Amino acid sequence: MERLNDRNCNYLYINEEIRPLTSWEKFRQVCKRSIKGELFVGLWIVFREMVRKGNLATVKYPFEKLPISPRYRAIRKLLRLLESGNERCIGCGLCEKICVANCIRIDTSLGEDGRKKVSEYSINFGRCIYCGFCAEVCPELAIVHGGEYENASEQRAHFGLKEDMLTPIDIFKAGGQKEFPGYGSLSENASSLIKKTPLAYKEEKCTN
Ligand code: SF4
Ligand code: SF4
Questions:
Q1: I want to staple 148 with a disulfide (CB 3.0 to 4.6 A). Which of 20, 25, 75, 180 is the partner?
Q2: For the whole model, what pTM was predicted?
């Protein structure tokens, strides 16, 4: 086997006449071609990183879990009004319309007081891609994405009904619903951000 240098290329010319024939010759050729110094350098780096203290790149899931951002987009929740405890959802249907995966179904009816009531609200979590559009579009800040991401199911159609997503009334009464629990809700510095709109600057200038 010789290297072709005539045209400055790196191709190897395999000489059929020196092809290994015996098992020993074949073994020697395999060793010569496969065992290079770089292999041991790579193995040494892997071993060094493996035994280095405090250098763990993985955790023993599900026994250990990494902390996730408070605004992580996982399973959706429906919130209640803080003052009255009533459902925030007014059944406007915007989330159903904007859903890219077409997995939200809402049914509304006329209540005894003549107001629209949300009689059915379901979401197919098997189809939801957690894009967050529904939470962004909701005018009542009723939808937030929580941090519950373990939603494996044995059924293809894994539906979440309103009762599963809405804050349970006993937990709500015990103060278990926080105002800023996840993606889709107002952030804690929302007021300061609103004040930075061009309109606010204009007003500032006028008053000065
Ligand atoms: S966008 Fe909000 S208020 Fe409108 S139907 Fe959906 S959850 Fe209810
Ligand atoms: S997160 Fe996206 S895919 Fe899931 S229900 Fe909302 S709009 Fe649909």
A1: 75
A2: 0.64
Torsion of CA 142, 146, 152, 154, to 10 degrees: -30
* Counted domains in the chain: 2
Residues in contact with ligand 1 (CB, 6 Å cut-off): 89-95, 106, 137-138, 140, 142-143
Please tell me whether residues 96 and 12 are part of one structural domain: no
Is the beta carbon of 75 within 6 A of some atom in ligand 2? no
Note the ligand closest to the C-alpha atom of 125.
Answer: 2
- Ligand 2 within 6 A of CB of 131: yes
Summarised one tens digit per residue, pLDDT across range 60-118 is 898 998 888 888 898 888 998 888 888 899 999 999 999 999 999 999 998 888 888 89
Whether 185 contacts 141, CB under 8 Å: yes
Residues 111 and 170 in one domain: yes
88 and 27 housed in the same domain: no
Q: Within a domain: residue 165?
A: yes
Residues 107, 20 share a domain? no
Question: For residue 155, how many other CB atoms are within 10 A of its CB?
Answer: 7
**What residue owns the CA closest to ligand 1's atom 2?**
138
Report which of 179, 160, 139 is spatially closest to residue 74, judged by C-alpha positions. Answer: 160
**Residue 61 within a domain:** no
Full domain range(s) for residue 46: 2-51
CA of 121 to the centre of ligand 2 (A): 13
Same domain, 17 and 118: no
No. of H helices and E strands in the chain?
A: 8, 7
Residue nearest to atom 3 of ligand 1 (CA): 89
